[in-house]
């Protein structure tokens, strides 16, 4: 039966905030061996994982397996390496990621209880939301990109902006409204998520953080951000 309240707590696992679904499976994750032609989508939560997964799935299987499109939810086609549960959660700017993650943790009953927005934002800034610091994720892959030619770094903001061209080239199916309606991509079949609290396909916008951050939160966040990001050349757009 559907879960109606948050059942998990975040625990500190080697310095990263996680829930037991991830840590229980840690040996398998650590021992995973990729094949040379595997594609790994490395995202901080809420950066557009589902979107990129669907685009890649359509590029690879869109023409050859029509039944795949109607019968298999996207999180089963492109599984989460770190999770041994069938359902879960590109780089996206910190403020929109924090807002999206907050709404996701409110509606996802296997997330830890998010608390109020102000507490949550502070936890995000402290790197204590699930999967650890956004800052380390985006900067870490940005550094790796300088040495690994196979690493393709994508920005959510660019995808929203160039969406029209990209959508036309692949299919109109990856448009936000289409993915929101599509039962195979909108997570509506997942029992631990309460869409009455917040739908998974929530807004899909750049800049929704402006509807959540107070002026004081924004000033505090920017000051902290500048400090956390002072030694990287990586730049995000928080509006387009
Ligand atoms: P919002 O909560 O801001 O709406 P993830 O898949 O990594 O969990 O990320 C989810 C976020 O990506 C949600 O953001 C969701 O609405 C957005 N998203 C998913 N598909 C999208 C699309 N086709 N276009 C724009 N945003 C999309």
Automatic annotation (TrEMBL):
Pfam families: Sulfotransfer_1 (PF00685). It comes from the Eukaryota. Belongs to the sulfotransferase 1 family. This is Sulfotransferase. GO terms for molecular function: sulfotransferase activity. Residues 36-83, 91-232 form the Sulfotransferase domain. Keywords: Transferase. The keyword Nucleus does not apply. Its EC number is 2.8.2.-.
């Amino acid at each position: 039966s559907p879960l109606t309240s948050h059942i998990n707590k975040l625990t500190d696992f080697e310095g990263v905030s996680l829930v037991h679904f991830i840590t229980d499976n840690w040996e398998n994750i650590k021992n995973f061996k990729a094949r040379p032609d595997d594609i790994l989508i490395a995202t901080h939560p809420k950066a557009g994982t589902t979107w990129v997964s669907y685009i890649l799935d359509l590029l690879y299987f869109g023409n050859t397996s029509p039944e795949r499109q109607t019968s298999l939810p996207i999180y089963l086609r492109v599984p989460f390496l770190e999770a041994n549960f069938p359902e879960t959660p590109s780089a996206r700017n910190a403020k929109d990621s924090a807002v999206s993650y907050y709404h996701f943790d409110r509606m996802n009953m296997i997330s830890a209880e998010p608390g109020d927005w102000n507490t949550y934002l502070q936890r995000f800034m402290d790197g204590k939301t699930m999967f650890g610091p956004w800052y380390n994720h985006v900067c870490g892959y940005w550094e790796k990109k300088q040495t690994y030619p196979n690493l393709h770094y994508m920005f959510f903001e660019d995808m929203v902006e160039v969406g029209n061209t990209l959508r036309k080239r692949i299919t109109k199916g990856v448009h936000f409204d289409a993915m929101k309606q599509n039962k195979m991509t909108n997570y509506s079949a997942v029992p631990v998520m309460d869409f009455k609290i917040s739908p998974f396909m929530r807004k899909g916008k750049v800049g929704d953080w402006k509807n959540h951050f107070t002026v004081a939160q924004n000033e505090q966040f920017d000051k902290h951000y500048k400090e956390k990001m002072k030694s990287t050349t990586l730049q995000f757009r928080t509006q387009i």
